[in-house]
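ingest -> validate -> predict -> emit
validate: passed (alphabet ok, no gaps, 111 aa)
predict: started
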Amino acid sequence: TVPIIDLRYRFKAPTQHYGLNTPIILVNTNGSRQIFGLVVDTVIDVINIPHSNLEMFEMVMPGNLAEQVTTQAAYLAGITKFEGQIILILNSDAVLTHTEQVNLSKALGTQ
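emit:
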């Protein structure tokens, strides 16, 4: 069993209808070692980014602007550039709260 989380719901964005072509990305969290699916709007490409190319969000964003987006920044692991594009890296551990991770592990019997 793989639980599915709609990122639109998590980020309080307007919902969309699901269909056969709705993209789902499988991720695992370091905190619970649990695999879950994330419903996303679009998948353009899947790439490997070396950890050494990842810049911490706080190091790139000016201080006053970083304070304004504190809530959203918790979901970011970092920022990188790839082929001239800026890419925001999702912190999959932040998608579920600790309580949600524990409850999920209990429900799936993986505790």
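The beta strands are 4-6, 24-28, 35-39, 76-82, 85-90.
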